[in-house]
User: Which sequence fits this backbone?
């Protein structure tokens, strides 16, 4: 769609999957004399229209696949290049691959490509089962530090064996797509709060607590780690990830995967993307907030032999609004460089500090300064009624599925 067509689509949209369909609300306002339009409606829903099960890997602050799906299907055609500079679990590039677009995903955190790459070219379940059967799981092995608060000693032995197997395959340069898949699933299963994870009950899988805190959780819940068969759990999660794609689709994904690229660079300058090649950028940057990255990732980094100190230094965690804006200004210059004439940016940012700071309104002038034209702010608000006080709702506090996306285009 071009700019006028997209505008017409938004203003005439009536949701079909909701109990209370309403017309799009348009609000005109100004921020520092920059005119801004807001479009509010339920443009996509994460309830009825399920996304592909391949996306179901948890990641801190990930967006739902329906968000990139909306922009990819409206603003690009097959074979167009779609880019996410802050790729996370790879939601954008995986959705691009599923829709036969070409994708680039970048993230300074190497865990991002570990979680993304295998799902671009998923293996068959029997290949995963065969490979797991060949790995020697030695229950007597143990790690160099105390993991007994998370794992039964036999489970720990199996995890250490798998880590050793995967690391030696990659050191020898012989790991393949099946090893990468097993690494991705195991990384996702390390800790969590159900019996589907390797650990005893703990924080959700995108956060790992410290050994000390886990002790406290165990005492409070009067629990001891039970044995978990990691081979079975990896297979079970693999089946669930693969259930939404047919064999034909998986073959197609594999064919498309050769056009998909993963980068591990600072989003301010991603050297592997050529000038004016990207049709659409869909992304969600690190919000203005302090995320304790070290605490969240220590176990996943250990499992994948990633240097946590190194990563922590590179990751952008900005607590002041001025610094956040300066950082985003540099990012936008690179986004402008890579975007084609006629290309788009959909930049998802939320409200922070209990709704006091609306990052969407701050990012609008940043994109304009880099050279883009501001299209407007799309607010996807699920299941609200005409009488709801939509402007007063703080999406963080209310826990709704509201997304705020600042949209730009390049002429
Ligand atoms: C809000 S998350 C993106 C989540 C993603 N949309 C998804 O669905 O998983 C922001 C990401 O930015 C990455 N990041 C932080 N600083 C970065 C930088 N300077 N350059 C590139 N990526 C960075 C983090 O590792 C994190 O994965």
Assistant:
């Amino acid at each position: 769609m071009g700019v006028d067509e997209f505008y017409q689509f938004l203003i005439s949209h009536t949701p079909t999957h909701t109990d209370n369909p309403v017309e799009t609300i348009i609000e005109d306002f100004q921020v520092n004399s920059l005119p801004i339009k807001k479009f509010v409606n339920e443009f996509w829903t994460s309830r009825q229209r399920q996304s592909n099960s391949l996306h179901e890997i948890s990641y801190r602050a990930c967006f739902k696949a329906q968000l990139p799906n909306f922009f990819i299907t409206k603003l690009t055609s097959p074979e167009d290049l779609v880019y996410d500079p802050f790729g996370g679990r790879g939601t954008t590039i995986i959705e691009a691959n599923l829709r036969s677009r070409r994708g680039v995903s970048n993230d300074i955190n190497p865990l991002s490509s570990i979680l993304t790459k295998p799902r671009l070219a998923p293996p068959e379940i029997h290949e995963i089962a065969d490979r797991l059967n060949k790995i020697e799981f030695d229950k007597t092995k143990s790690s160099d530090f105390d993991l007994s608060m998370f794992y039964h000693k036999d489970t720990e032995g199996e995890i250490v064996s798998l880590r050793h197997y995967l690391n030696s395959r990659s050191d020898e340069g012989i790991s393949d797509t099946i090893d990468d898949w097993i690494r991705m699933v195991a990384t996702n299963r390390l800790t969590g709060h159900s019996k589907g994870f390797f650990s005893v009950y703990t924080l959700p899988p995108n956060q790992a607590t410290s050994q000390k805190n886990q002790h406290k959780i165990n005492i409070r819940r009067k629990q001891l780690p039970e044995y978990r068969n990691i081979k079975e759990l990896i297979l079970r999660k693999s089946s669930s990830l693969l259930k939404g794609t047919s064999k034909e689709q998986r073959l197609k994904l594999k064919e498309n995967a050769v056009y998909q690229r993963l980068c591990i660079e600072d989003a301010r300058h991603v050297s592997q993307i050529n000038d004016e090649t990207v049709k659409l950028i869909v992304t969600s940057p690190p919000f203005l907030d302090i995320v304790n990255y070290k605490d969240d990732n220590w176990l996943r980094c250990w499992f994948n032999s990633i240097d946590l100190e190194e990563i922590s230094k590179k990751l952008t965690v900005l607590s002041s609004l001025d610094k956040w804006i300066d950082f985003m200004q540099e990012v936008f210059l690179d986004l402008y460089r890579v975007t084609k004439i006629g290309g788009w940016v959909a930049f998802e940012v939320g409200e922070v500090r209990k709704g006091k700071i609306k990052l969407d309104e701050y990012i609008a002038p940043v994109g304009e300064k880099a050279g883009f034209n501001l299209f407007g702010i799309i607010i996807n608000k699920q299941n609200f009624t005409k009488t709801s006080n939509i402007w007063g709702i703080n999406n963080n506090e209310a826990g709704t599925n509201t997304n705020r996306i600042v949209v730009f285009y390049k002429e």
User: Anything to note?
Assistant: The chain has 15 helices and eleven strands. The two ends are 14 Å apart (CA to CA). Residues 59, 61-63, 86, 88-89, 91, 106-109, 112, 266-267, 284-286, 315-316 surround S-adenosylmethionine (CB under 6 Å).
